[in-house]
Design a protein that fits this description.
Keywords: Developmental protein, Differentiation, Nucleus, Oogenesis, Repeat, Spermatogenesis, tRNA processing, WD repeat. This protein is mainly beta. The protein contains two helices and 27 strands. Strand 7 and strand 8 form a beta hairpin.
Length: 383
């Protein structure tokens, strides 16, 4: 899985066992992390024995690969999860090459990762819908099971006031859970007809949440009441969401990665005017969709960094957010130097078709059988 995101002043790119922290202007590497091929060499336990600790189900002979990467809000910590040997690794970010603080076993492969607003803990959701909290101060403390969904959770956000944890899943739901009393559900934001793939809080606007979905909609919610505020139709199912504030508390740029569409990315400017929210401007970025497999992207003040695969090799391309054209100010040689760090890793994009619900039309099959049975009976009567 390829992860890419922008956290000023760093562009973070992860694939295979490596994480690179880049200067987005010239793509020079600030620092890097390379996860060991065998995590037992850095403290990973095949089976955790502490009471309440999830039990790792993987042996040391499986290939390790990074699934999710996240920066803490105070920029002091970096958390990442792995598959093969399922683990959560927490690093201190300030040393030049990052200092590993802890390696903790996960019971199942992670699906989403998010730090608490005060950076004191990190949340990990897994592919069965469970959400665990891991302490970043007492790193040996066992994790706490906070909440659970009945299907895979695709994204998770924690509100700045630490009062709510918001999750979205494959079953069309957005759930707002009270914290720390996570047994108590505050509200649901219901209305999507397919998987909900991304969430984002609007800075400076308490109670407002953006969501995207496989049902080809982008929606704005008041998550405190569960009420929908705005709905924007999209040209294709949406699978990734990035957001940037343009004018404080008034205008935001929402960038959406589409699934299997001639245009790879949609840009939507959300504006508050006369106490009403609307999409003031929209544009599409082709990003040469169709000529390569686009898997993820990051948004900066003037560029869109798009990651994907060409001939099963990780590829990074850069486009202007203003006009959608390829950024000429980024020399191809710089991109090639970055990609050389991942030359030994194959890149096979995730099959996102599995995110969609499988629908079975049993009625049509029944009616067809009934029709054939009636025809057979009529033929027998004619004889």
């Amino acid at each position: 899985m390829t992860t890419i995101f922008y956290t000023e002043p760093e562009l973070v790119l992860s694939h295979g066992r490596k994480v690179l922290f880049l200067n987005p202007n010239d793509l020079q590497i600030f620092k890097d992390i390379e996860v060991p091929a065998d995590l037992t060499t850095c403290g990973f336990k095949i089976e955790a024995t502490d009471e309440g600790e999830p039990k790792a189900t993987c042996g040391s002979n499986l290939e390790v690969s990074i699934l999710n990467v996240c920066y803490s809000p105070d920029r002091q910590l970096i958390a990442l999860t792995t598959v093969g040997q399922k683990a959560l690794l927490v690093y201190k970010s300030r040393p030049e090459h990052a200092l590993l603080l802890s390696v903790r076993a996960l019971a199942r492969a992670s699906s989403a990762l998010a730090f608490a607003p005060d950076s004191s803990s990190v949340l990990v959701t897994d592919k069965t819908g469970d959400c665990y909290q891991y302490d970043c101060v007492e790193v040996q403390a066992p994790p706490k099971l906070l909440l659970g969904h009945l299907s895979i959770v695709y994204d998770i956000v924690w509100t700045p006031d630490l009062k709510h944890i918001i999750t979205c899943d494959r079953d069309d739901k957005i759930r707002v859970t009270n914290y720390p009393a996570t047994h108590d559900i505050h509200s649901y934001c219901l209305g999507h007809k397919e998987f909900v793939s991304g969430l984002a809080l609007l800075p400076g606007n308490e109670g407002l949440l953006i969501s995207i979905s496989g049902d080809k909609t982008l929606r704005l919610w008041n998550y405190l009441t569960g009420k929908e505020v705005l709905q924007q139709q999209l040209p294709a199912p949406a699978v990734r969401l990035q957001m940037r504030e343009l004018i404080q508390s008034k205008r935001y740029l929402l960038a959406v990665l589409f699934y299997d569409h001639v245009e790879a990315i949609g840009l939507y400017e959300l504006e508050l005017k006369e106490d009403a929210w609307s999409i003031a401007k929209e544009s599409l970025v082709r990003a040469e969709a169709g000529s390569w497999s686009v898997s993820n992207f990051a948004l900066t003040s003037d560029r869109i960094y798009v990651a994907g695969a060409v001939n099963e090799r990780l590829t990074l391309r850069v486009y202007n957010s203003a006009d959608g054209k390829q950024a000429e100010s980024v020399p191809a040689g710089w991109l090639d130097m970055v990609m050389e760090n991942f030359a030994e890793q194959t890149c096979v994009p995730e099959d996102l078709s599995a995110w969609f619900k499988k629908r079975y039309d049993n009625i049509s099959e029944y009616m067809e059988r009934k029709k054939r049975r009636i025809e057979d009976q009529q033929q027998q009567h004619q004889k």
